Amino acid sequence: MKKRILSILLAVVMLCLTVTGCSGSKSGSGENTAGGDSSNADTAGGDTTGKDAADGEKILRISQSSGGEIDPGVITDFTSCMAVVNLYDSLVYPDMDNNAAASAAKEWSVSDNGLEWTFVLNEGIKFHDGSELQASDVVFSADRLMTIGEGFAYLFKDYLEKAEAVDTYTVKFTLKQSFAPFLSILPRLYILNEDVVMENLADGSYGDFGDYGKAYLAENDAGSGAYALKEMKVQDRIVMEKFDDYFAEWEENAPETVEIIMNTEAATIRTMMENGELEISDQWQTDEAYSALDQIEGIDLGNFSNGQVFYLMLNTKKAPTDDIHIRRALAYLIDYAQVCDTLFPGYIKAGSVVPAGVVGYTDTYNEYDFNLDKAKEELSQSAYADSLDSVTLDLAWIADVPDEEKLALLIQATAQQIGLNVNVVKVPWATHVDNVAQIDSTPNAVTCFVSSDYSEAGAMLYQRFHSDTAGTWQQTEWLQDTALDTKIKQSLTTTDENERIALYGELQKEALENCWGIAVAEQAEKHAYYDYVEFPAMERAAEGKSVSTAMGYNFLFRTFKINK
Amino acid sequence: MNFKRFILHRLLLSIIVIFGLSIVIFCIARIIPGDPARMALGATATDYALENFREENHLNEVLPVQYVYWIGGVLRGDFGISTMTSRPVSGDIMEFLPATLEVVVLAALFLVVGSIFLGTLAAKHRDSVLDGLIRVFSYAGVAMPGFVLAILLMLLFGYVWPVIPVLGRLSHGITSPPSITGMYTVDSLLSGDFKTFWNAFLHTLVPALALCAGGMFQEARLVRNAMTENMGRDYLAAMKGYGVPNRLIMNKYLLKPSLIPAVSCMGMDIASLMSNAFLIEVIFGWPGISKYGMNGMLAKDLNAISGVIMVFGILFVGINILVDIIVAYLDPRIRLGGGK
Fold first, then answer.
1. What is the pLDDT of residue A32?
2. Structural domain boundaries enclosing A111
């Protein structure tokens, strides 16, 4: 019997040794061939036995949340934007100072009435199939975006009348009404290769245009961006490689291959980074996970404010937050210093209801700070002052972002000190989206992050307070105020910049005085990354300079450097 | 003859079960609150896009008519377009299902072989140190959630003893084999690429182990208990008395009847491996259908949810039929019961 047990144990040891030996040989083979097919779609950044990519290989791998798509006509989320800004060009793009910089267009002009915008294209821009980018492609891309009506079409739908090609390299946009930040939204009009899309139409509901290339563009690119798609593995990874005929300049040592890996699982990310299979982590890790990553040799931590504002949204049509004094009391109840120093290290107290850095931002009117006396004073002025015991305020936090619970609990604790009952509720995102479609099911307060659609204060003011967005996750305030809507539209259509900025200022003042919603802090987008990677946004933030507030534009990979 | 009738009976019942399942799936997916078009296209989609979506997906029709359209599509293998990936759900399933099956098949193999082996070993050495050791592992395996074991295995093979790859389906630099079944181990073998086969197989090992461990230890306990219980039966003592070789008694007359309770549980456990694979797929960066289905739920992608649950349902029913057949084979009383 003992002999049998011994033989079984020996067999197990032999099996382990076999596996060890075989995987060791694979390790070698992986390293030797790393320069070859370096972007196998099913390789999670490489083999853990093979360690990191071969020395000198300019590969950049970054983790992101799943759901990334690459069709510019349907995307709006972060992962997708990160891919698309590298695969496609637009006429202009937002630089790190949030100004519109020339891209496919070399110059532009606007008519006196602000209704006609004319752009002259750079000649010789190549699509990834080698054909030339022309004005007709811009017109086709605009028509496609507007016809499909998804993705970023909502930015254009109220303003864009038509796009037309004046000649081969000149395109003219005619607006229905003047829209001053038109240049700011143009980066979201990505230019597609008309011929490629038309050659790949499938059956669909867009008449002669079939599916308008939706099926094809879900897995292929038709762009002229700095990177061309190598492999699109839905829900898993997006692999791009350097496009040698790109018209604009490259940074020396820019990555030749980029992989966006759709996985944010902490243990996986840690293993990948430890093994040199991931150069930059996503921004969705917990502080504990970042601390663990920071312990790995050669990995740095950094953060920058990306224009995303962490709000406590307040339902102004439901008791007790229908009372301005209750809302203002809540604003005084938040310990902003604790939020930014302890709960969310790196966050910055918001100076206004719009993010710092966008055109028209002002922090002149934000009077709120942590002050229990003022909170009590506001509470005493409210209509509910005599019946506080019977009043309960529901405060929801989004289950998908566990860190939000910290803010909810902090407010609950401080509210208790002044006799205000706060009921903290955990809500999954999908349920929250359903709940906020009706006033009655919208909670009194909810924690939520909102990023600006483009780099103007008017964008956030529209997103947060215009009636068009009432009942969506972007506005649970349910303001539905016609006069306010008119003011917002007026500010967006004012072509004189100084005048427009003044109007943005007035709206910010009104929002803060009435405390429609509380802008708690500006998010610090945190990443762990290898020290051989030069990450432009991190470096600018470290120098106190601004970074792009438009989603995806801090990740123009041709501006990154792999110094190894 | 009776055995054939038994199988036919099970198949007919399964058709009714799958039909019922289709109604339940359809209703649950449609009754959940919220406008499906708005959920699919987001808060910012234009009215035109929303209306177009409703028309394309027959959402303006009454529920029974919608069901007819949907089930008609399902019977043709068309589950509609996934709003999450903008591709046909059937195509997504064809892409993701083989990856999951690859792990699940190996996990099922581990589960069956491991549980019988460990159970038999424990029973043979009842109340010995070995039995105690297996018992400890069994309790630990049953008590520990699969994802915890997955993380521990990842730490073990990712940091401490990096001899087996733990992430993805293939190593850096290994090209995926030409797609025939979608399962890399099978496809590489079919195309005669043994290097890729070995690499793909190694990548499957740790996820499969993490996936099957709980079930394997649980089944091992069942096998062990059934065997120790049957050991005292008179017919075994008689056989020993007649000089029947011990090995024959053990493997045929003791093991076979002792497997019946374990096999029934194994069927359920193997079928559950599909849905339990979600966290394993997330942790090991495995692009499988469970992860796809879960992402579909988070994105409220009705077509993807319906498609994935339907496929899981069919597989679940199929595995249960297979288990019924195996149990009937092992226990004649079951297959003969219908032919009295």
1. 33
2. 89-209
